[in-house]
Amino acid sequence: LALFIQGLEMGLFPLGEAMAQAMARKGSLVGLLSFAFVLGFSTTVAEPALIAIAAEAAEIAGQGEAIANTAAAKSDYAFGLRLTVALSVGIALVLGVFRILVGWPIQYFIIGGYILVMVMTAFAPPEIIGIAYDSGGVTTSTITVPLVAALGVGLASTIRGRNPLLDGFGLIAFASLTPMIFVMVFGILA
Length: 190
Hints:
Layout: H1 2-26, H2 29-45, H3 48-63, H4 71-102, H5 106-123, H6 126-138, H7 144-158, H8 164-189
Helix pairs in contact: 1-7, 2-4, 2-7, 3-4, 3-6, 4-7, 4-8, 5-8, 6-8, 7-8
């Protein structure tokens, strides 16, 4: 794991920064936001911790009779959970990149997001709340963090007046906040 992380830092972090800077210089808002979505979605789908927690959540849901206790139902549930979390991270990065571009303060988004999480916790099914909170943690793991941080730092360092430390790592805060919201919605709907 240490060698894997070192490889990510040596290879992907500079690549992510260079790509963010190149996209920002081209000036294509749609291209930059699309890149942010694809980066967030694809890294989250590939996140090993998310794969493990989705499989475990499906197993528990099957045993608790929240879903049919069949292999197909568990597989569908785990896949749906992974896609929900990946979609939420993609949307979080789009919102975070747009926030960096226009210069909106991060604290309003984070405070508002956590207020929404607290309100949704009261309405979500109790069996999904733990999974929702854990999904926020597992999305910020070995694959996602280096690339998301590289995108944020690269973009913030390219735009005058932005703080690479605050804005760059602010994307990680979005990437861990939105899965909690989306998974609770998933639990309410599923």
